[in-house]
Predict the structure.
Amino acid sequence: MAADDELGWLGAAELAGLYRSRQLSPVEVAQAVLRRIERVDPGVNAMARLTREHALAAARASEAVFQRGETPRLLEGVPMTIKDLHSTSGVPTEQGSLIFRGSLPDTDTPAVARLHAAGAVMLGKTTSPEFGWKGVSESPLTGITHNPWRHGLNAGASSAGAAVAAACGFGPLHEGGDGAGSIRMPAAFSGVFGFKPTHGRVPCWPVSNNDAATHVGPITRSVRDAALMVQAMAGPHPWDFLSLEAPPQDYAGNLAPDLRGKRIAFSADFGHARVDPDVAAPVASAVAVFERLGAVVEPVTPPWGPLGPELVRYFWPAAFAAKRQYLAEWADRMDPGLVAMLEVAGRQTVPEFMLMRERRFAYIQAIHQFMAGYDFLLSPAVSVAAFPATQLQPSHWPRHPWDWLMWAEFSYPFNWSGSPAASVPCGFTPDGLPVGLQIVGRRFDDLGVLQASAAFEAARPWAGNRPPLAS
């Protein structure tokens, strides 16, 4: 049996085997991981709250399944966390905002309900910036969520708490959401695996104002754990009219990769994006791994790439325009960058929005036409390594009152296109901070992206890397 403090690092499949052999019990694991979180989290602030009683009740129910010799569910007794933007029945969901402090939903989102139905044990809710608006791990409600590799640095975007929890061994499964990169960017900053499935693969409720760009997916330390988590969450749901009719595949059972002959595009900058050299070098080294695995890698400059910046800087404020309703009462207690962005949203008009929307639809079509010629597209996940979480931009980048997107140009195109995309840890900067490689697939090829990620994981294992703040 693993030492108490090691139980939080075990993967879902490992735990399942240990439960079946009675070497561990779900209650024992839940208690051990909760103790670990209580000891380690004060140094990283990944948890908005723990749900100890919920966790122990679910763990006891799972333990009874194994004691009675019944067939366990897919994630029976496996610890998980839920992002605090997502509704959890009977557990506060505060969205990183003082406005919703103490808000208590009476409904689980479909993804959360399915994780519970699969037997997962919810340990708590993870932190998010206010309403998930920015790529920096800080909010007026919970303060800074620290990068696990260095205190005070950014852990990235609205699923930052989930990524830090994964990196710190707070159990194997962490649910996240991605509206412009908020699964992939935190995964890159924290040195873990993040997967954004095809849009609609996992139902999203309430349906986001982000115009069919928000996805729900896993952040984990391994590709297999992410595959298991997607299996549990995926499938159509009547509450999300954009959810896909197709039932989930056996992703975890079909990860054996063979990249020989696969045609892969690689773009270092999408024809416009600034990328720090300390990030570009590990990404280039990672791309070479795919060639060694037998893929044909072609450097490209996608023609649609330079069209993205103007579009995203229009649509990102528009996506949050409904939050303007809170300005009169709450502006002085809201994130100042969010307030500045909402002022921009107040100047947008409906005819302008519809014209820009036509341009964005053409942009999306161009992405899909481009991807028809390739199995996968590789790029940096983020342009920079972690920087101080008190800033919207790294110190050596231009200043702007709300535009954090300048260092995150690689992720949002695939929120709009609905394509599956992952961030895999691909190395470190000379300063010892993680770097992520993005793997994008054709729409609906979730299994392909998971297989390509698994192939890279096998060639360049990362799960053994433990950040300093995890100790």
User: Anything to note?
Assistant: The first strand starts at residue 47 and ends at 50.
